[in-house]
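Hi W., the flavin-adenine dinucleotide complex you wanted:
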Amino acid sequence: MTSIDKDIFENTAVAFAHKTDTELQKAKWLFSLIGNNKLVSLGTSLADFALKIHLPISPLFRITVYEHFCGGETFDECKQTIAKLHKSHVYAMLNYGVELKEREEDFDKTIEKNLEALEFAGKNKDVKVLCIKITGFGRFGLFEKMQAGKKLTKAETEELERVKDRLDKICQSAAKNDVSVYVDAEESWIQDPLDEMVEDMMAKFNHKKAVVFNTLQLYRWDRLDYLHKQLKASKSKGFILGAKLVRGAYMEKERDRAAQMGYNSPIHADKDAVDKDFNIAMNLCLDNLDHVSVCIASQSEESNMLAVKQIDAKKIDRKHPHILFSQLYGMGDNITFNLARLGFNASKYLPYGPVKDVIPYLIRRAQENTSVSGQMGRELRLLTTEIQRRKQK
Ligand SMILES: Cc1cc2nc3c(=O)[nH]c(=O)nc-3n(C[C@H](O)[C@H](O)[C@H](O)COP(=O)(O)OP(=O)(O)OC[C@H]3O[C@@H](n4cnc5c(N)ncnc54)[C@H](O)[C@@H]3O)c2cc1C
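Structure:
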C-alpha cells in the first residue's frame, strides 16, 4: 500500500494524464480568463442578457467552459467522458444540469431525464451516483411556504404530493438499477422540508445499502447536531445513513438574507469554524461506517489529506464501499486522480445536458473561481507545472 506523504496532491502527471497537450493549454487559458473578476462579471451580465433575448450563445459556451466542466449533451457523449475517467479508476456522479425551472411540465421532464439517466447508469458500472436537486422536482416557493409554517392550500397539498411521488419514483429506480441518489442541499430557508422528504426516502430504501443520500452543509452551525440526530435515527430505525458532506455553496446569499430580514445567520462566523465542523463530521462518519455511507465532497486539499490519513490511521480499507471522495469535473483533478491512484474510491460530479440549459451552472463555476480564495491560483499553478513537465520530457 502506497503511504501518504505531504506531496500526494502535487503529482501533476497523474492529475492530468487524461488530458492531451492541447486540452491542458486550453484549460490554462480558461482558468486565466475566469480568474479575471471584471471579465467574469461582464461576461455574466452579457450571458444573462443574451439568454433573455434568445441570442444563440450556446456554441461559444460549448467550446469554452462547457467542454471543460461538463460530460456532454447526450449519454453517448457522456460515455466518452466516463470511459476517460474509468481509465484512471475514477467513477462518475451524473447530474442533469438543468436548473431553475418552475412549471409542472418542466418538473415532469426533469424526472423523465433522471429516470433515463438511472437506466443508463444501471448499465454502466462506472456511474455510481445520480445527483439531484429537489427544486428540480417542485417549486421553490412551495418549500419556502412549508418551512415558514404557513398552511398549504388544497392545490398546494396536491402539488406537494406530486413532488413526493417524483422523488419516490427516482429512488425506486435507483434501487432497481443499483445506483445511489445524492440529493443536493440548497438554501437554508427551504432545507427543512427537503430534509424531511430525504429522511423518509432513506428510511424506505437504505436497508441493505445506502441508495439515498442527503447533503449536509457544514458551514451551517446546526448541521453537526443534525448529523448526530440522523446517526441516532439510523441506528434506532435500522437504515444506513447516506451523508454527502460539503461546506456549502450559498454563504453570501444566506448572510445577506439573514441581515436583511433581521434573523441570526445560519452560517458560521468564520472559515475556521466551518473547517472544524467539517473535520468532526468526517471523523464521526468514519467512526460509524457500519451505519453511515459517506461522500467527502470537497476540493480542499487539507480536508482530503486529513480524510485519507484518518482512513489509514483507523485501519479502514481504502476501498471501503461506504466511502467515496468527490470533486467537480474540471476542477481539483490533482485531488481526484491522485486519490484514485492511491486506491481510494474517487469520483467526479459530472453535469450533462443541453448547453443552453447548463449555462447557469457554468456561470456559477466561473464566479466561484474568482471568489474562492486560492482555488483559481492553484488550478493555474498545477496546469502550468504539468505543461512545463511535459516540455522537459
Ligand atoms: C461533489 C460536490 C458536490 C457538492 N454539492 C453541494 C450541495 O449539494 N450543496 C451545496 O451547498 N454545495 C455543494 N457543493 C459545493 C460546496 O458546498 C463548496 O461550496 C465547495 O466545494 C467549496 O468548498 P470546499 O470544501 O471544496 O473548499 P474550501 O475552499 O476549503 O472551502 C470553501 C468554502 O468554505 C466556506 N467558507 C469560506 N469562507 C467562509 C467564511 N468566511 N465563513 C464561513 N464559511 C466560509 C464556504 O462554504 C466556501 O464555499 C458541492 C461540491 C462538490 C465538490
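Residues 8-12+71-359 form a domain with the TIM Barrel fold (CATH 3.20.20.220).

W.
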